[in-house]
Backbone:
């Protein structure tokens, strides 16, 4: 990053930016959507939360303690679980345990592989790399993870007759659930595949745009973007795989019987 | 594995399920015997047969198949020996042949072709013409699907076949013809059949034994002809006197 091209944003400039929100709020008020107050409140939350994260990151960057970095990663995982839990109405049995462990292994594994082997910086816990990269990987995997969980639940409900028929014909729980697992895994992977196919044509990814804005050469930013897309794809694939692998078992007993689930 | 003459093929011993839905069910049957389970809706008929292939487990009591506790068998193996036709004939995607091959996929065995003797035997027993094998299973009529369902249940060569309301979605002639088929299989193959049914006419016509189940208990059980001719309990007399649900 060369400081020559890096344009700083001062407070006055931010105020100009915030004026755009006020413009949006007045348009909403003009149309009388009745949500102006909420809009304003959301914008204030956005500013306060981002400033808080900024200060927190600045603090973490100066302290550079591995324990603190790990703690932040765990908090991020916790928040992602909370978001997914509130978004999904019908949750599979042992939802939080399964989602938590799958994200930790899937996203965590890929993050460390990416940081240590692909980017290869030292020390391994350097918050300047680890935190934003983990954030991007977890954030992007959340969608695939909730799709896998949501789809598994609905497939297991809709396929009740099929599951019992399969069991009656001598299938194991795993064999009976196989078509449901296949459909759920496909549903989890499709958005990531679509994003990969559309990247660069339909949308310029956020990270790449950010790097270019802060002065990185486009080709280097592109290389980073390619690498991070690979990491996100693997993270979605591994996390969703683990969710389904553990998730379907909750619908069956040890004796390959279908459990009564809500 | 053939049971000796003294050992019944199936023995139910003091079965009780959670929250006493079924209470103290004791009963046995022999190979080649057709048993009808009748009684009011919600009386536990389906729950009873679901215990026999372990789709559910009792909280108390035990079930012996040819003298062996069924909990000692791996469930997939038990379900090969105890076939079951669920009330709704679910057809897997694909042809009738694909559906008949499904149990072999689960066992990771070579799939039998359309000419395989075991496959031809099953569709023959279910009175299904070989022309059906290449047809899309999901486009068949209810009666035809129920025959595929029967052939698919028979392809594992079970010793015991459980039927949950096999004729509930069928019209009278189709019901009669399927009932006749069941009786013939029972006699020719020495297969024991336990059939839950609302259709008293069918039960009376084809079954050897009848169990009358009400509120989770066996109120009366015995030879079908006797039970229908001389019901002992007031409950059964009332039940038999009511017009049949299917014909109502």
Residues:
């Amino acid at each position: 990053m060369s400081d020559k091209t890096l344009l700083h944003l001062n407070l006055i400039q931010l105020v100009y930016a915030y004026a755009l929100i006020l413009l949006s709020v007045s348009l909403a008020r003009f149309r009388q959507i009745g949500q102006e107050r909420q809009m304003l409140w959301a914008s204030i939350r956005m500013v306060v939360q981002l400033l808080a994260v900024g200060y927190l990151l600045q603090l973490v960057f100066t302290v550079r303690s591995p324990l603190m970095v790990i703690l932040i990663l765990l908090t991020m995982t916790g928040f992602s679980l909370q978001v997914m839990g509130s978004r999904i109405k019908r949750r599979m049995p042992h939802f939080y345990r399964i989602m938590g462990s799958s994200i930790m292994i899937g996203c965590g594994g890929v993050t460390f592989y990416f940081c240590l082997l692909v980017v290869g910086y030292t020390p391994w816990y350097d918050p300047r790399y680890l935190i934003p990269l983990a954030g991007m990987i977890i954030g992007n995997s959340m969608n695939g993870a909730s799709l896998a969980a949501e789809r598994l639940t609905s497939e297991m409900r809709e396929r009740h007759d099929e599951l019992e028929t399969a069991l009656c014909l001598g299938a194991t729980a795993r064999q009976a659930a196989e078509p449901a697992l296949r459909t759920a895994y496909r549903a989890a992977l499709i958005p990531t595949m679509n994003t990969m196919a559309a990247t660069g044509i339909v949308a310029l990814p956020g990270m790449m745009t950010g790097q270019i804005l802060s002065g990185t050469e486009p080709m280097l930013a592109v290389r980073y973007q390619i690498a991070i897309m690979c990491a996100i794809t693997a993270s979605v694939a591994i996390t969703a795989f683990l969710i389904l692998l553990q998730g379907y078992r909750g619908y069956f007993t040890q004796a390959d019987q279908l459990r009564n689930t809500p | 594995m053939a049971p000796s003459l003294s050992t019944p093929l199936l023995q139910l011993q003091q079965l009780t399920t959670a929250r006493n839905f079924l209470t103290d069910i004791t009963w046995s049957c022999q190979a080649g015997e057709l048993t009808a389970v009748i009684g009011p809706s919600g009386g536990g008929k389906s729950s009873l047969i679901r215990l026999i292939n372990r789709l559910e487990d009792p909280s108390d009591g035990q079930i012996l198949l040819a003298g062996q506790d069924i909990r000692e068998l791996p469930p997939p193996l038990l379900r090969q020996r105890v076939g079951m036709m669920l009330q709704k004939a679910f057809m897997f995607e694909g042809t009738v042949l694909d559906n008949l091959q499904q149990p072999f996929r689960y066992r990771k065995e070579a799939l039998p072709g359309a000419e395989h003797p075991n496959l031809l035997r099953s569709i023959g027993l279910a009175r299904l013409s070989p022309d059906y094998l290449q047809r899309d299973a999901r486009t068949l009529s209810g009666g035809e699907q129920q025959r595929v369902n029967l052939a698919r249940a028979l392809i594992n060569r079970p010793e015991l076949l459980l039927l949950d309301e096999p004729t509930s979605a069928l019209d009278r002639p189709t019901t009669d013809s399927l009932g006749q088929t069941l009786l013939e299989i029972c006699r020719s193959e020495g297969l024991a059949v336990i059939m839950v049914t609302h259709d008293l006419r069918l039960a009376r016509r084809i079954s050897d034994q009848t169990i009358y189940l009400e509120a989770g208990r066996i109120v009366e059980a015995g030879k079908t002809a006797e039970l229908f001719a001389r019901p002992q309990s007031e409950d059964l007399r009332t039940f038999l006197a009511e017009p049949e649900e299917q014909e109502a």
User: Anything to note?
Assistant: The mean pLDDT of chain B is 91. Chain B touches chain A at residues 53-57, 71, 75-77, 79-80, 83-86, 88, 90, 92, 102-103, 105-107, 152-153, 156 (CB under 8 Å). The longest strand of chain B covers residues 10-16. Chain B is about 35% helix and 20% strand.
